[in-house]
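Explain this record to help learners:
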Amino acid sequence: MANRLANETSPYLLQHADNPVDWYPWGPEALERAREENRVILLSIGYSACHWCHVMAHESFENEAIAAQMNELFVNIKVDREERPDIDALYMASVQAMTGHGGWPMTVFLTPDGQPFYGGTYFPPGDRGGMPGFPRVMQGVHEAYRDRHEQVVESAQALTNRLSEVFRGDLPPGKLNAELFATALDNLERNYDAEHGGFGGAPKFPAGMAVELLLRIHHRNGSEQALAMAHHTLDRMARGGLYDQVGGGFHRYTVDGVWLVPHFEKMLYDNALLADAYSLAYQATGETFYRTIAEETLDYVLREMTAPEGGFYSTQDADTEGEEGRFFVWTPDQVRETLGDEADAVIELLGMTERGNFEGSNVLSIPLQEDRLRWRDEQFAPLRRELFEARAERVHPGRDDKILTSWNGLMMRAFATAAYVFGSQRYADAARANAVFLRDNLQHQGRLLHSYKDGAARIDGFLEDYAFLIDGLLALYRATFEPEWIAWARDLARVAIDDFYDAEAGAFYDTAATGEQLIARPRDPFDNATPSGNSVIADGLIRLAHLIGDVEFTRLARSVIEEHAAIATEHPHGLARLLVAADFATGPSAEIALVGADDDAGRAEMVAALDAAYLPRTVVAAAAPESETAEVIDLLLSRELVDGQAAAYVCVNHACQMPVTQPDAMLEQIRELTENR
C-alpha cells in the first residue's frame, strides 16, 4: 500500500511512495503529529539522482523490519532537497556542525518543534566497517530522547541558537579595490592542483565558477598564472571521465582527484555552469576545444533535458538497472562489437584496458591532450556517433523531470551566452522559449514559484529563483536586445528586495520574510554546487543599474559585495561568484549603447565585434533611434544616429565618449576605459 508520498509530484518523493515506512512530506500534518505525541522527527533528505540515496532506500526504507522500527519510534518526514533548498540548507548546516561533514542522503533527528539534536548522512542497515547500523542509531536516539530528555532539548536549543547566529552573520566589511583580486589569486593558488587542474583532491568537483573568476583576474591584471590555471582546469575536466565522451555533458563529480571516475548523475546546474564557463573561455582565448565542449553540452541538454514547452529538467540518474554507471561504461569487447575493425584505434585513444578502471568496465577519457580534437575529426567523429547510437539501445538512466526556476535561470544564461558568443540562433531560441515558459508557468501575481511538475507549479520562490532568473534574463537580453526581458528582470529585482533583503545585515536571506517560518532563517554567502544567491543577486542588481539607471540597485548590490568582500578574498574558491560581482562593482565598468535599426548592417557589425571580444566589465544595450525601449533602458535615452549611421556610445558611469560608427573605434574606446586598471 502506498504511503502519503503518493500524493506528491516530486520524482524523488514518489520513489519512496511504496516504502513500508509511514512517510510524511514536510508540512503541518507531520509537524503537528510530532508535537501532539511528543515524538522525535526522523527527517530524511535526498534527491532522485543520488546513488547513495538509492542504496539507503533499498537497504533500509524497503526493509520491513527497519521500517517497522521507524514507524514505531518516530514521525518520518521525507524531503526532496531540490524542492526545498531552505530545509536542506538549514539541516545540512546542523549536520555539519555536529559531525564536521555533510552530504546526501542526510538523516537528521529533530525534537517535535523541529530543532536538530543528532544526524548524519548514510547509515548502513547493520553495523559495518566501524559505522553503526541504522537500527542501532535509531534505538539510541529514541532512548536518549526518552531518558535524557532535558539534556537533549538543551543541546538542540543551543545548536539552533548557533545556527541563527551563523545565518545572521557578523563579518568585517571589505573595500572594493583591485587589491582584492591579487589576494584572491594567491589564495586560489594555495588550493590549486597543479598536476591535474581544479581545486583540492578526491572527491573532485567541477570548477566552473572558479574558472570564470580566473578569467576575470587575467582580464583585469594580465595574470598569466590565472589564465594557465583556467586553461589547465578546463582541459582536464573535459578530457576526463567527468565529461561524457560519447554523449556530451558533465557528470556531478569524480570520486578520485584526477577527473577520471565520476559519480554518474548529471545535474542541470553543473551543465549550465560549465557550458557557460567554456563559452566564456572560448570568447576569452579563441580555443576551439572550449567551444566544442560548450556546444556538445548544450546539445545534450536540448536532446535529453528539455521539455517540449521549453523548460529544462533537473537531473539524470547515476544508476541504471540497479547498477551505478551501467549506461555510460564500456568494455573493449563492447567497443569491438560496435566498431569492428575500427575499434582498436578508439580503444587506444580513449585509454581503455581489458581490466578497466571501474568495476571491470571503462569510464571513457582522453588521456593525451593532442587527441582531444582528434576524437572529433573526420576519422573518429563517425565512430563516436556509432558508439552513441549503440549506447542509445541500452536502458537509459532515470530522469527527474521537475522544472526548477533557479536551475532553469542558470541554464537560460548558458544558452543565451552561447547564443551571442557563437552567433547561434538555435541557442537564442532555446533561451527565449525557456523565459516564456517560466513567465507563463512559474510566476503568480508577480512573484515566482520554485518548482513545476505535471502541469502544476508549487512552493514559493527562494532568493536563488529570483537571482538566477534575473541573471538569465540579463544574458537573454544581451543575446536578443528584446527589452521585455530587462523589464521583467527589473520587476523581479524589486520583489526580491522587498521580500529577501535585510537592511541591518546589508545582505539577502535565502527565504522570504513572508515564507514558512523555520527554526532559523537561512542565509548562505558561500557558493556550493550552485552559486550563492547573495552573490548572483548582487551581480544582477549592479548590472541592471547600469542599464536602467536605478541608483538604489547599485547601493544594495555594493552593500552585499562589501559585506562579504573580506571573507571572499580569504576563501575565493567558496565565494568565486561574489568576486565576479566585485570585479564589475570595482570597475571601471563600461556601458555601451548602440543605436541603429534592428536590420542595420552597421549596428550588426558592432554587435558582432562585441560578441567576439571578452569584455566582462561591460553592459550592452541596443535599439532603433527613438525607440520605446528607452522607456525601459535608461542607457538608451537621447541616443541618435551619427550622420545617418548606426553609432556606439561608450560610457563609464553614464559619462560618455564621443559616439563612433566603426567597430574598431568602439573597441578601442572600451579598452582604454576598462582594461588593465
About this structure: The CA atoms of residues 186 and 646 lie 44 Å apart. The chain has four domains: 4-168, 179-319+400-586, 328-393, 590-674. The chain has 24 helices and 22 strands.
